[in-house]
Amino acid sequence: MTKQVLDGYKREGKKLVPPLMLLPNLVETSFRDSKIPELIWISGLFSALDAKDAVNLIVEFIIECDKAIYPEKIKPLAFISNFQALTELQKQKIKEHSGCNKYTSIISRYLDYQNYLFDNYPLAFIFSKQEDVSRSDAINRLMKDVVNLLDRNSFHAMKVQTAALASMMATGKLVMHMDVGRPDLNKIYTDPESSEGRLAASFVRASLNAGASIHISEEIGNKWVESFWIASYDFEGCI
Amino acid sequence: MSNKKLKLHEFVIAYEDYLRSSFNDLWSKVSINPLELDSFSVVGGLLSRQVTLSMQLARSPDTWNGHAAPLFLRAQTDLQITLAWTLCDLVARSRKFILHSLGEEKLNLEHHKKRLEDNPDLPDRDLIEKLIEAKATWINQQRHDWLVEVNLGHWGDLNARTMSKEAGCEDLYNFAYKPFTQAAHSMWSHISVYNSRHCENPLHRGHLIPELVEIDIDPDYMYRSCKYVHKTYQSFIDTFKIELDGLMPLEWWNNFLEEAAIQPDEV
User: How far is A75 from chain B (nearest CA, A)?
Assistant: First the structure.
């Protein structure tokens, strides 16, 4: 039979609805709008460090934060707004935990410009003092962090998402059933263009979508995301 | 250059300068909500389109007649109705506006794909493949194309008349949009007047025969174009509670004619 234009679309009144939109409980999200602000700190670390060092730093730091707060349960800290959801006591525990200290000094050194730019930066509590930062330099670096995430499929964005997912798995926030054929996530870093690399990248994006929808506190997350975009809009005029 | 042509040239230069500066001033006054950038992209684009259409018409005085000017004026009145209606509920309606275009491009893209499938030896295949790629990129930058619905109806789910009524510009619809639509769609009311003449043979019972009718330019068409820019500016001023530095378009028009001491029949 001859294939028709928009085969598989369902007609609803004057609308032709794509098959995937007919799935129940489908929720649309925008990576650009809602995930870039959440992953901006990871993006900044990948901009500053080589991939291996960045992954280790991020995953180890998050593991140590979890340990510092144990046995209390917290949301995955890969999403930066979840730092804001911590109580003052929990933040204090992280600051005082020796396992965290070796990482907080490095993170605060590399992310000083983000802390400088945002009044309500969720990681502000790990900074002991505000470093002397040039405003224009800070804005340029933030622009780079955002640009690198705009295309969710780019190499940089995939590294960021993979590190986020790896930290969620390492801290038991995302548990994969044994039956789930988990691809080799290392391929994203070592051979991103291979079929295994692409499969792994697709797996990461889908898993992170699911994880983010469950693990980001809606109220605090939205507040951070909104304040991030409002502040960012005012840093500089249209170019 | 004749005196008449010189004055026309002066007008075109001055009008374009005025539109550029007033457009920049107006847009700079709009307070953009960083959380609703798409909505402001829509109305900003419409503002630019309105001014551009008027500038393009001004640059081509030979088109200031009943043959060609209505094509511009129909687009300008349509735009004003779209803008006025959208501004009544900016976020929701501008989203509809965007999604509708994504759907139309998606459908167009699928037609091109089907054409290639059905005609593997198409001579301009490379060109069409590039076109498909460009369109797919444009769609996917805004929304994954596999999520794009195709709306075969009007983008606002209403017709232009209802939209104009809801937006309080029904007169614009009745007395400008509709008449210009007749010309833009080459309807009988237009072609029987502008593209025909009565045969003078009494034995032919006064039938119409096609005629390439030459008509003089009429600055009233340009005046109307300026008026629609004025309406668009006014919509922005009212909605965003802003003020334009300097003159509004119709004030500028009157001022220019007065200062240049141009009589309407001189244009």
Answer: 26
Domain boundaries along the sequence of chain B: 1-88+217-267
| Count of C-beta atoms within a 10 Å radius of residue A44 | 24
Phi, psi (deg, nearest 5) at residue B151: -100, 115
Question: B104 vs A13, A157, B107, B153, B205, CA distance in Å?
Answer: 16, 30, 5, 10, 47
Strands (E), chain B: 150-151, 196-198, 208-210
User: What value of ipTM does the predicted structure carry?
Assistant: 0.84
First-to-last C-alpha distance (Å) of chain B? 14
Nearest to A39 by CA among A194, A165, A199, A141: A165
| Record: contact B35-A28, CB cut-off 8 A | no
Within 8 A by CB and 6+ apart from B191, the residues are: none
- pLDDT digit of tens for each residue in chain A (239 aa)? 567 889 889 999 999 999 988 888 888 888 999 999 999 999 999 999 999 999 999 999 999 999 999 999 899 999 999 999 999 999 999 999 999 999 999 999 999 999 999 999 999 999 987 778 999 999 999 999 999 999 999 999 999 999 999 999 999 888 877 667 778 888 888 888 899 999 899 988 888 887 776 777 778 889 999 999 999 999 999 98
Q: At B209, give phi and psi (nearest 5°).
A: -120, 145
Q: Read off the tokens for A225.
A: 């995301």
A6 touches chain B (CB under 8 A): yes
pTM: 0.89
* Chain B environment of A13 (Cβ under 8 Å): 153
Interface residue A234 vs chain B (CB under 8 A): yes
Place of tokens 């489908």: A26
